[in-house]
Write a structure and sequence with these properties.
This protein is an alpha/beta fold. It contains eight helices and eight strands; from the N terminus they run βααβαβαββαβαααββ. Strands 1-4-3-2-5-6-8-7 form an eight-stranded mixed beta sheet, with helices on both faces. The chain binds S-adenosylmethionine. The site of S-adenosylmethionine has 19 residues, from loops.
């Protein structure tokens, strides 16, 4: 198939998939793939290139660093990485998201490598990465497939390389779940036109696959990562900074 400008065809992966393999090109839950949703995404999500820069500083991304951002969305992190001279790859299942990311890169005068591919079928054909990131997206996969995605992320990193995960990940006690989730939904929702709606957070909890931090930690270790640090700024969100063994 002819690709639009610089998007690289990296899916399907090297092996044919069995019939039972997870279908990742029709994400569940809140619509993020339609043109309207993509246009509103940065406002709703609070995308902030300065925050992305601060993260890149923390991860030691400098000129020449090879970085892969899985589920890159509108591409801010990959673009900011490319602006500091990193060899940046942005991977996403949504053509609409990639079109937006490509336009952002053009405006910034940089050219990350864009890949229309998913966690489960992105084939990293470039040299092994120094840093792999994924923000606000791993919850799109059920837990069995999260483990598969983390194994694949480890496989594209050099030994000693950095893996960074940020997502809706629960750190409350399971017995507190109902109250904690209801509080999050009630306080995070914004009025129409100002951010994600209360109904979007309800959809997230009901239809997407966010899970507990202790499950994610076990998966990270089994994927071949050591934990460098972890943070739970809210009981509904977590970050894990890991090193590939
Ligand atoms: C909430 S957005 C996060 C985007 C970006 N990482 C950020 O921090 O703003 C989730 C993204 O994951 C993408 N996505 C969903 N399922 C995916 C999968 N299996 N593989 C790769 N990307 C996926 C969606 O298209 C969307 O761009």
């Amino acid at each position: 198939m002819q690709r639009r400008d610089d998007t690289e065809r990296t899916a399907p992966t090297e092996r044919p998939r069995p019939a039972w393999y997870f279908s990742e090109y029709t994400p569940v839950g809140v619509d993020l793939g339609s043109r309207d949703a993509v246009t509103a995404y940065d406002r709703n999500q609070g995308t902030d290139p300065e925050a992305d820069d601060a993260l890149l500083d923390r991860l030691g991304v400098t000129e020449g660093t090879r970085l892969v951002d899985l589920a890159c969305g509108t591409g801010s992190l990959a673009v900011q990485a490319a602006r500091r001279g990193a060899v940046a790859h942005g991977v996403d299942v949504s053509e609409e998201m990639l079109a937006f990311a490509r336009a952002r890169a053009r405006e910034s005068g940089v050219a990350p490598h864009w890949h229309h591919a998913g966690f489960l079928d992105y084939a990293h054909r470039a040299p092994l990465a120094d840093v792999v990131t994924t923000k606000s997206a791993l919850h799109q996969l059920p837990d069995f497939w999260k483990q598969e995605a983390l194994l694949r992320a480890a496989g594209m990193l050099r030994p000693g390389g950095t893996f960074y995960l940020w997502d809706v990940i629960y750190s409350f006690e399971p017995s507190d779940a109902q109250g904690r989730l209801q509080h999050w939904i009630d306080t995070a929702g914004r009025p129409e036109g100002q951010g994600f709606l209360k109904a979007d957070f309800e959809t997230h909890v009901r239809d997407e696959f966010s899970t507990y931090a202790w499950i994610i930690e076990g998966m990270l270790r089994r994927a071949g990562f050591d934990l460098v640090s972890r943070a739970f700024p809210r009981t509904t969100h977590a970050e894990f900074h890991c090193r590939r063994r």
